[in-house]
Backbone:
């Protein structure tokens, strides 16, 4: 028995919209029929989902997430994190290695993959670290980690401080045909500041994280990427200066790609209501000028893809306040509706653009065979109700943590059915 998804709205990157019937059989997309053709599918013996008026999209892909397992299961685990992802319409997620232990050995990669197979409801692809224990001192065994199934190398959570270490990592990754994914942060410019160096920090007498602490690494690394020929991917771009450097590097044919998070597209330091750690994340919320720069960068292709940086932390941890709480906010369950409401419904972006940056484009950047509704591809499908306006409610959050600044926001564009590898994993 398969699943017929009838009369759904499909959209491509050029925003061409068509109404289609999609048949899922086993874990594959078996048939796609143009509804205008008048061919009425034989649905007998199949489950039927009426998607009339709803968006039928390839399952969303999120290349930057923190699932916290192993080691920080009080914040999230693979069971809760993948269910939270499914609620947000994500069917493929790439998990960051800043767990405990960090993902720096084949054993830990295997642990994640085994756990994902038993506890997870969507596809989990791990990153391995660049350096052992993310300490920046010694490279991990890149070849063995690749063999075990990592999609790239990153010390996300911290920057790789040594240029020589980064260059060695890039050269090794390039020789294996693998990407380096960089959390860009120079520790000599940031000493534990909780927010951006700007108006909020000044008003509250706080130290601030300057834009240069991110951009200096971007500048350094695009030069190293040029020298080594590696595919270099920049995490959570937040500053105008980083955008400038990435744009320039792309003009010179350097193999650089980049990602941006919904919160950096939507919020600036001026929106932070007070000393509430649900507004604390790394990189921090910057100035309206930076927000404008990352929006333009996504629009002109300088920034390639949208990721959430889903970073769960418990309420107790966040209650420690702006100074002491850990950095990070949730991402999965509000990403699409936030961007649909604030960019598509306002006429700034087409629906096709938003969907492309959350599906096909991330698949292309990382060479994954997902993000498409083509016949024969894996049946990862997200059905989205584009009409219902609903508030973000804390009680409805599926993640084990609740740390998001978006509680109470009235949004439209809610995933209502998520199908991963042919199975309904959220409805
Ligand atoms: N982004 C964050 O604020 N926090 C992330 C680390 C990271 O992605 O850099 C985390 O692990 O909590
Ligand atoms: Zn990071």
Residues:
């Amino acid at each position: 028995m398969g699943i017929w998804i009838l009369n759904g709205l499909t959209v491509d990157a050029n925003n061409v919209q068509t109404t289609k019937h999609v048949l899922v059989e086993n874990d594959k997309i078996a048939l796609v029929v143009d509804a205008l053709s008048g061919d009425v599918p034989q649905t007998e013996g199949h489950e039927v989902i009426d998607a009339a008026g709803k968006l039928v999209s390839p399952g969303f892909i999120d290349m930057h997430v923190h699932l916290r397992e192993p080691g920080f299961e009080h914040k999230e685990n693979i069971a809760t994190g993948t269910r939270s992802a499914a609620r947000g319409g994500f069917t493929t997620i790439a998990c960051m290695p800043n767990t405990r232990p960090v993902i720096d050995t084949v054993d830990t990669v295997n642990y994640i993959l085994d756990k994902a197979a038993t506890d997870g409801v969507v596809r989990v692809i791990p990153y391995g670290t660049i350096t052992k224990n993310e300490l920046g001192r010694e490279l991990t065994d890149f070849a063995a980690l690749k063999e075990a199934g990592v999609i790239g190398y990153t010390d996300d959570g911290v920057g790789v401080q040594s240029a020589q270490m980064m260059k060695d990592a890039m050269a090794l990754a390039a020789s294996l045909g693998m990407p380096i994914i960089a959390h860009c942060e120079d520790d000599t410019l940031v000493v534990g500041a909780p927010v951006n160096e700007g108006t909020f920090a000044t008003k509250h007498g706080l130290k601030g994280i300057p834009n240069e602490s991110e951009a200096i690494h971007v500048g350094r690394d695009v030069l190293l990427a040029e020298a080594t020929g590696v595919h270099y991917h920049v995490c959570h771009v937040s500053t105008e200066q980083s955008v400038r450097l990435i744009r320039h590097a792309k003009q010179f044919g350097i193999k650089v790609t980049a990602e941006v998070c919904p919160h950096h597209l939507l919020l600036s330091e001026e929106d932070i209501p007070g000393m509430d750690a649900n507004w604390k994340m790394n990189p921090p919320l910057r100035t309206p000028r930076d927000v404008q720069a990352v929006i333009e960068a996504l629009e002109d292709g300088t920034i390639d893809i949208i990721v959430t940086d889903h970073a769960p932390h418990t309420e107790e941890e966040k209650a420690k306040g702006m100074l002491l709480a850990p950095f990070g906010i949730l991402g999965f369950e509000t990403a699409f509706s936030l961007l649909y409401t604030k960019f598509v419904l306002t006429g700034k972006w087409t629906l096709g653009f938003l969907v492309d940056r959350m599906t096909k484009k991330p698949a292309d950047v990382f060479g994954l065979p997902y993000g498409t509704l083509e016949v024969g591809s894996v049946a990862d499908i997200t059905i989205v109700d584009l009409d219902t306006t609903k508030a973000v409610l804390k009680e409805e959050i599926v993640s084990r943590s609740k740390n998001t600044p978006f509680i109470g926001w009235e949004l439209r564009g809610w995933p209502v059915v998520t199908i991963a590898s042919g199975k309904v994993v959220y409805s």
Observations:
- Residues 3-56+377-426 form a domain with the Urease, subunit C; domain 1 fold (CATH 2.30.40.10).
- The pocket of zinc ion (ligand 2) is lined by residues 156-157, 183, 235-236 (CB under 6 Å).
- The longest helix spans residues 211-228.
